[in-house]
């Protein structure tokens, strides 16, 4: 039981991580952000 | 529901517009004591008395409404388009008490657009020091406006400004200057064709090459006829307009402002003479840089050791406390180790930005820009290119955006292309860990540590490569351009603790949360790829290794290590890494470094997090990242994997390679083409590979 739960948690974390990375780097936003790359615009370069 | 009005903050560069914006909105946009901080409009909300709300728009600094660069166009486009949703109900022109004459040129132009305008005279705390006194009622009468005398540094006068904005309907909308004084015949003809239009607005439409929006296009199309005057004639009329405005401003200030030079206690001239000296200026700048890098090393070592140890203990504690299983391993070996690889660099990044922020706030950075202009010209760059190159020490993205105030397209393009060579904060973790592994801890002449010196050399290498590439690009790119360089020399100021603290906090937060999210996600993916694999070699690792070493009498711990190593080699990541190995082996790297290089294409600092994750998979010992990397053995050559040759090779690779997807995206946006980012990616990465290859082959 413990193994199943742990595996479910691992695959959930993996799915979330992949979704985040794909959205971040391969999803082109339609609108330009109006603010510059300042503190927390998540440009990912800092 | 309370009513909301649009308020535009406009002014010359470096008058403190962003400080006024922060004071009104309570936001913390970056401020600095050098021009060009704001290149795009920024927005915020301010609560005013009597339930009124203001939508505050902080516009890029401009010296006049005669735009010469992209960021200045933003101001004109907004002020000329009444249909823009941000068109201001009131314009707040921010001026600096010490440069009132020059600042009023822009003020009179905005007044002539008949927009209700408030004049803010900022930095009033310096009036006594500079022997300046101002007759506010007289100036208000002459300039047909209301004036707020404020000091954002001392937080004085902000409430008076809010009160004036609230009463914006009472502000006179009369112009300061009758546009027809520029050329009576020309403007009379203009008036005949457009009887219901504002003359000065039409004049700007004729002379400025900006986008006026679709709605007004029909009206403005007709003004094309008035461009029949030759360009030289229009320029002559623009000059005449400026002269007329300055005549009016001089007349107004003659009575409205007095400057008692005897009571001015000015250190500025003496300091400028030394800090911008053609020899001592550079010596002092080099000494300041050296001091900064030394301090970064000396002051950060204790908190860094503490963080490193804490993450190693946390990983160990997680493994021992939580129930055994895949998710516990993911937490201990993947997430905690990966994040530890980022958090450990917080002290050094915070110290770097502390010093940069102090240099900006004090006004010294503008002197550096001035000093560098002498060098930059020889390499085909403008002095204005220094601001992006210096901003690039934080991040290439805002730095590339800061090129918008460079008037010449050729110089702007060259600056965009070479800025990513500047050492950004993301390179810092890679440099720091490699330097810690390959450079001894001793001190040069007993004072400067070798590690600090290496770090400084890497910063100079980045800057030198940027300038050298600019020289080549200047020769290669066949574009004609003419430019001039005007830089604002702000006064020296004691850095405000609040501004310095905010900058450090903001940059550190951006580093941790911006990169942290990517590193967290990548750590999970990498851990998965390193902990799972296809086929019998991975699934039956225990049986295969036990059989293989049956005759060698290994103890339990040694056998477990062999099994973990076998599993890693045959995991998904191991297979991918081995496929990559032939390409990177000539540089002195193993497949694990190869994986770290590929994953760090997302963001450079991911390199350390990736290695921390890969090295901790299957490890049961409480080990710090540095120790794990130091203990790695080169599988082919033997000896430490991270030795002097492979370390220098890695440092050079990261100094030159274009390892940042976000930078490529912003270059595409700023150049409006994929051509330039692709050139940048291919040339920078190719150059990095060759430099790293030569370094390793020569030093090994």
UniProtKB/TrEMBL annotation, chain B:
GO terms for molecular function: ferrous iron transmembrane transporter activity; GTP binding; metal ion binding. GTP binds at residues 11-18, 36-40, 58-61, 122-125. InterPro entries: Fe2_transport_prot-B, Fe2_transport_prot_B_C, FeoB_GTPase, G_FEOB_dom, Gate_dom, GTP-bd, P-loop_NTPase. Residues 4-171 form the FeoB-type G domain. One of its GO terms (cellular component) is plasma membrane. Mg(2+) 2 binds at residues 23, 25-26. It is a multi-pass membrane protein. Pfam families: FeoB_C (PF07664), FeoB_N (PF02421), Gate (PF07670). Mg(2+) 1 binds at residue 22. Keywords: Cell membrane, GTP-binding, Ion transport, Iron, Iron transport, Magnesium, Membrane, Metal-binding, Nucleotide-binding, Transmembrane, Transmembrane helix, Transport. The chain crosses the membrane at residues 279-297, 335-359, 379-401, 413-440, 452-473, 510-530, 636-657, 677-699. It is found in: Cell inner membrane; Cell membrane. Belongs to the TRAFAC class TrmE-Era-EngA-EngB-Septin-like GTPase superfamily. FeoB GTPase (TC 9.A.8) family. Probable transporter of a GTP-driven Fe(2+) uptake system. This is Ferrous iron transport protein B.
